[in-house]
Amino acid sequence: MSIASDLLANLLAKEDFFSGLSQQRRLYEAAKTAIHQQHLGAGTKLPSSRDLARDLCLARNTVVAAFEQLSNEGYVSSSLGSGTYVADLAEMKPIADQNNHLDALALTSATAQVAALSRRGAHITAFAAGPRFEIQPFVPGDADFSNFPFKLWQRLQNRVWREARSELLDYADAGGFLPLRLAIAEYLRVSRSVKVAVENIVITSGTHQSLDLCAQLLADVGDTAWVEDPCYWAARRVFEACDLRLHPIKVDAEGIALGPEDLATDPRLIYVTPSHQYPTGAVMSLARRRELLDVAVRKNAWILEDDYDSEFRYTGRPLASLQGLDSADRVVYMGTFSKILYPGIKIGYMVVPSALADPFKIALYDLQRPGQLMVQAALADFISQGHFSTHIRKIRQIYGARRELLRKTLVAQFGTQLNQRVSISSEESGLHLVVELPDQVDDVALEKLAAESGISVKALSTYYLKAPVRRGLLVGYAYVTPDKIVYYGKLLAAVILSGVR
Ligand SMILES: Cc1ncc(COP(=O)(O)O)c(C=O)c1O
């Protein structure tokens, strides 16, 4: 989906955006808003009416009629064969219809606020994920930080401070604190079958920064990035902010499912979550892993493997990484301590192919000036002294039991009739499960309804870049204690029942 389609889709998805008016009028108003607020700047080429109709799931006539109206009023200009372009508002005559709600809006403070931003800045801020999810029952992705071993951590930190090594107060160069990189290398070799030497490890401030560095160092403006559809919102945001062209690829029970139309494009980056697709939970099959590695070699593309929660596998052994199968050095592997320890620790890592190791370390140092060596030192001790593995074992048990309890609670509440119409994701890993709903159910409305009962679930359809979307709810269980799982599980089941009946 192009940036313009994405922008318009986001505006149209807002429930109160000219609700009650025709599709044509809503699209016209959305485009006008985007032009006034300079999210669609002068000279921007709009997608063809055919592409826009497909991306927004509208009839082509509707799009053509909305374009015509915009053209009549001078917001866009079209010439046969070359496409439709946004006009320069500065050159426009005063707008006739000053009573129009949106024109007024555009001329007020909103415009003044965004006018100072670059076009990219305006785009990023307009479509940011918004205020952080309230931490309340079933918020997807959040762990239960009350299990964090505070005392032990304090002891390790104290020891580092007592040693008073002044060099640890400096910026972190050479990819991060060596003992931490050694400890991570050992952990990845044993637990994730990653092929790694310590030189290949670059410590970052988390997966977001890892993705940003990859986008900046491995792709140029306008290059194509293949992403899973549905996709982790932050990967999408980072790539968009780097002006990459996103090509969404559908996901099925075996993970990313390449079709002929995908293979006809040439990606520079391929972003995947093979161990536990975010958000559907699908585990990429071995055949698909091999296929993807082959394609990456043929297309000369880089695979970015986001292994964000593979530690949370509740039955059987954790799956080996995709990187471990790569014999052509096409995979950049990414991990994070956000989920196992706590998000605010802001430490993640990449395992990059040898040819990329020095350029990545140089760029990280020049662009970001990383630091936090004291925390990195405490973390190195935490891992090498065996506390990390112990902690993983402990929380894995806790979250596994919570997952089972949530599933049982929902199944019992749904009853036979509903259990035939909805399905609960069955893979035994991660920090959330997906309750899949029938296609006609409005999952966004259910998300809002659940919020009224103090429950933070997330609509599956909002993670998609293009139609057709699947409907469902992401329900996180790690953060919620067992008594609350039963109480809020019943409330959530009632919300779902009200939408599916
Ligand atoms: C798919 C995915 N990747 C990575 C992360 C972690 O990102 P970070 O290390 O920047 O906290 C998350 C966190 O929610 C995630 O859901």
From TrEMBL:
Q: InterPro entries attached here?
A: Aminotransferase_I/II_large (IPR004839), HTH_trans_reg/aminotransferase (IPR051446), PyrdxlP-dep_Trfase (IPR015424), PyrdxlP-dep_Trfase_major (IPR015421), Tscrpt_reg_HTH_GntR (IPR000524), WH-like_DNA-bd_sf (IPR036388), WH_DNA-bd_sf (IPR036390)
Pfam families, per this entry?
Answer: Aminotran_1_2 (PF00155), GntR (PF00392)
Q: SMART domains, per this entry?
A: HTH_GNTR
A molecular function annotated in GO for this UniProt entry is: pyridoxal phosphate binding
Report the domain of life of the source organism. Bacteria
Every copy of the HTH gntR-type domain together lies at: 21-89
Q: Which keywords fit this entry according to its UniProt record?
A: Aminotransferase, DNA-binding, Pyridoxal phosphate, Transcription, Transcription regulation, Transferase
What protein family does this chain belong to?
Answer: In the C-terminal section; belongs to the class-I pyridoxal-phosphate-dependent aminotransferase family.
Provide the protein name: PLP-dependent aminotransferase family protein
